[in-house]
Amino acid sequence: MRILISNDDGIEAPGIALAAKAASLLTDDVWVVAPDGKRTAAGPSLTVARPITMRRLGERRFSCSGTPADCIVTSMGWLFNDGKKPDLVVGGVNDGRNVGEDLAYSGTLGIAREATFWGIPAIGFSRVKEANVREGDAAWLARFIERLWQTRSEWAMEGHWLSVNLPADLPAPIAQPTIGRDKIARKTEIVRENGDEIELIVPRGRAHSSRKGDENSLIAEGFATMNRLNWFGETQLGGAFMEGLRAATK
């Protein structure tokens, strides 16, 4: 079993070390390809028609100058181009939960999304900040990943991936939440003004809005939450609306 791990916190982040340690309990064929620095909220962004620098840090460990999704693209198009592709892609473990609108912003979930374009089962793991990290966390995470791998026929549909949020303490019971609303980047602050040039910053942080049964409420109760997501996500328009539109545009 070949597992590819990436993240959006950077190659040296503690979360990716946890993911790699868990994966190594399942297989000795673990590869890590991650950004050379923090790429929070990079989403599924790609670097196209501009150079990307890969740096070999170990036998199966590389840093990438691009985005989290670039790590998957370059892995598939270069690193594994002439060999066996990964059987599973793991994103994370992200430093902070990915809930609500984060499903669109998250670089961690952008990794999993990109993997599905290559037909590879993928899981994005995130964990609350200031978690109570313990020695047994990697073993528990390994058992979780192993079970998901064994049951992949039940969740790894084309274009779908899993988003998992881990609470402060592991082990944890697992629940499937509703997707809530807890948008980051709600404020813009002025840092400096110089004539027509204005320097702005969007500060970190979120309101931690919650409603019963959503990710935040279940995480607060100590659950690990899991959703199956997909990239296409269309909602069909009503027949009467479409007929009216056709008639109006003849």
From TrEMBL:
Its EC number is 3.1.3.5. Residues 3-175 form the Survival protein SurE-like phosphatase/nucleotidase domain. Signal peptide: none annotated. It is an enzyme of class 3 (hydrolase). Pfam families: SurE. Keywords: Hydrolase, Metal-binding. It comes from the Bacteria. It catalyses: a ribonucleoside 5'-phosphate + H2O = a ribonucleoside + phosphate. This is 5'-nucleotidase. Belongs to the SurE nucleotidase family.
